[in-house]
């Protein structure tokens, strides 16, 4: 079984960019950013429970990582950068910590490296279970109206919030609920130690108005990049700046390896 995805052609000799979307997103999430990086061949994936992978169910991060590895092999992707947002960033970090062959670097936007204590994990598991139950039982537009009023999304204006609510409401609620619980932050291992001992470049991107993940970025042994005029959804709120940031990262790394 493979993850569904969409490819974009690039120039010979350039590494692949493998884009992973956030929770309730799909392969379209990074398209605006990817369009501004035309030299790089790209794979925009649908994660389990999302988009054209909605029928794929997993039990945890290990299975997602195995699916990702098999999918990359199926596309004959031998050298690649992982680029992930939020849930996609957490999956990207987990997969990178498995030291996959061909990984050239990791770029994460607003992804959490893992919770540090059991009470916090328990509280998160309970919260995600409640959200998952709502996703399975209630109209999605109602659930996402409340989802996008969480503090982490405070920087969104009304138009941005309504656009996201309409887009995310196209999903399958049961599939989303299952994926939310399978990849809950409560079940994710703390990846800080593995990320510190990595042998690949690690860049962390976050919006200047995203106080929560700005603080998390300071905990990580990563090169940090602040996106102006953006909050937690930086790649949507300021795709031009995010694309320019990625282009600079990749250009410098390719120069270093030449």
From TrEMBL:
Pathway: Quinol/quinone metabolism; 1,4-dihydroxy-2-naphthoate biosynthesis; 1,4-dihydroxy-2-naphthoate from chorismate: step 3/7; Quinol/quinone metabolism; menaquinone biosynthesis. Its EC number is 4.2.99.20. It holds the Pfam family Abhydrolase_1. Monomer. Residues 15-239 form the AB hydrolase-1 domain. Keywords: Lyase, Menaquinone biosynthesis. It comes from the Bacteria. Belongs to the AB hydrolase superfamily. MenH family. Catalyzes a proton abstraction reaction that results in 2,5-elimination of pyruvate from 2-succinyl-5-enolpyruvyl-6-hydroxy-3-cyclohexene-1-carboxylate (SEPHCHC) and the formation of 2-succinyl-6-hydroxy-2,4-cyclohexadiene-1-carboxylate (SHCHC). GO terms for molecular function: 2-succinyl-6-hydroxy-2,4-cyclohexadiene-1-carboxylate synthase activity. InterPro entries: AB_hydrolase_1, AB_hydrolase_fold, SHCHC_synthase_MenH. It catalyses: 5-enolpyruvoyl-6-hydroxy-2-succinyl-cyclohex-3-ene-1-carboxylate = (1R,6R)-6-hydroxy-2-succinyl-cyclohexa-2,4-diene-1-carboxylate + pyruvate. This is 2-succinyl-6-hydroxy-2,4-cyclohexadiene-1-carboxylate synthase. The keyword Lyase applies.
